[in-house]
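Page 47, continued from p. 46.
Same chain as before, 191 aa.
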Amino acid sequence: DRAAARRAEAKRPLPFMLSALCHDFGKAVATEEKEGRLHAYDHEHMGLPLVRSFLERLTHDKQITEYVLNMVENHMRPHMAANGPASIKKTNRMFDESVEPRDLILLADADAGASIREEPYVSCEPFLAERLAIYEEYMARPHVMGRDLVEAGLKPDKNFSEILAYAHKLRLAGVDKESALKQVLAYARTV
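Result:
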């Protein structure tokens, strides 16, 4: 119900609602009793085969399936990051690994807000929205690309994708393009 109330805010409402439906499928296989309490550790990962099987019966749309699997796998991360609180680099990495970061925040908020608890629910959405704005600002900055490395004298080879991945890590960390290029070129000499 909480997800349905916010589906109009989701960039992709149908797969968003499927994600809300499927996000806790893993609890069926992950739940166990420890010290008199029920826990479903790692349910977000253990449920992925169940979610995939369910979706295969509903649709052959690979984009919907990829979206839902990604959202289910990541739905616990926003609140863990906010309650940490996680570093900017860590939240940037989380958003970068999400198919739709804003929808992930909506799903996490709907999930956490629906949980039964003794104390009133305090949304982590303001913190996460602030961090998403930082991520989007970092992604809008000029950054090291393959053509920059070629212009600097590197030749594309078997290590090129690894070097570009390193450049992307620096981008997520907010390193400016000039400094990142120097660091990437130094890194390229070591691989």
